[in-house]
What we know:
Elements: E1 3-10, H1 14-27, E2 32-39, E3 56-60, H2 67-77, E4 82-86, E5 90-92, H3 97-103, E6 109-117, E7 127-128, H4 133-140, E8 160-161, E9 165-169, H5 170-175, H6 188-198, E10 202-213, H7 223-237, H8 240-254
Helix pairs in contact: 6-8
Amino acid sequence: MQKISISIVSHLQSSLVKLLLSDIDSFCSNSNIEVILTLNLPEKISFTEQHYFFPIITIKNPMPLGFAANHNQAFARASGQYFCVMNPDIRLNNDPFQPLIACLQDSTIGVAAPLVLNENGQQEDSARCFPTPLKIMCKAFGGCKGSDYVVKEETVFPDWIAGMFMLFPREVFERLSGFNQRYFLYYEDVDLCGRLALQGYKVALSPEAQVVHLARRESRRNAKYLKWHLVSMLKFFVSSVFLKILWGRLIKKHS
Length: 255
């Protein structure tokens, strides 16, 4: 059975991590799993790997790192054939890995994700088209509402999927050198999916796999997070990844 390495980063969120680990223990016992838990800030944890069927590798950062650096660091410690990035505020009601691994048997797919639901069972907007300055402005002024993709029973292939839950074949994540550490927080997932597209890979969302997201939406309430969000957005819009995608679509449109 091929191993799945799950990278979870805690920012003083050990209570959420404990719930997530219990979910993995309850629902994913048919999967071969290891967890790499990164404590990005000093905190006490009340659980050990003896509580679960899977081993836990714990990394304690001497100073806080960003999303990309934390998960890239975890990947360097991972031994699985699949690498999963999962937020601590994810909850499971079943095993999402088997349908996602089945999806990744298609070698043209570079990353797979589950359907993400909120606490009320409604679909979250976790699969989107690549952002553009025009679309961001439209949303800022109250337009461009609704989801970019309609997810029903079939697998959909969006431009990008949110980084709360992403499952990669190990060799694909390694080929891309992981997340771009120029982004401290936000847009790492957009950038990576953009680089996947430029290398000919597809992004997949499988509704056969479902998870629940206990969203915090820090960038909407905290000025520091909002600043990180805006800085990351600007970095993406001036990046070669965005410009190459935009150029490719302009050529395709007029060909």
